[in-house]
Amino acid sequence: DVPATSMESMAMAKELKRRGFSFVGPTTAYALMQATGMVDDHVADCWRAGR
């Protein structure tokens, strides 16, 4: 299974809310982290895993 959140995404969402962002949560922050390459969530048998 691929996680939808992490401790880091929870911290990022909390900080973004503190800075005035209103529609952001840990799942949105985690999606941003995936899209920017901060985390690699490809399952082990995926051809993109570990690249």
Query: What proportion of the residues is helical, as a percent range?
Result: 40-55%
- How large is the radius of gyration? 12 Å
* Percentage of residues in DSSP E strands: under 5%
CA distance, first residue to last residue:
19 Å
Order of SSEs: HH
The profile of the biggest β sheet is: none
Please identify the structural class as seen in this structure. mainly alpha
Low-confidence stretches: none
Mean pLDDT: 89
Total DSSP E strands: 0
| Count of domains | 1
- Tally of contiguous helical segments: 2
3D shape: elongated
Describe how the helices and strands are arranged.
Blueprint: H1 7-18, H2 26-35
Written account of the structure:
The chain has two helices and no strands. It has 51 residues and is mainly α. 43% of the residues lie in helices and 0% in strands. The protein has helices at residues 7-18, 26-35.
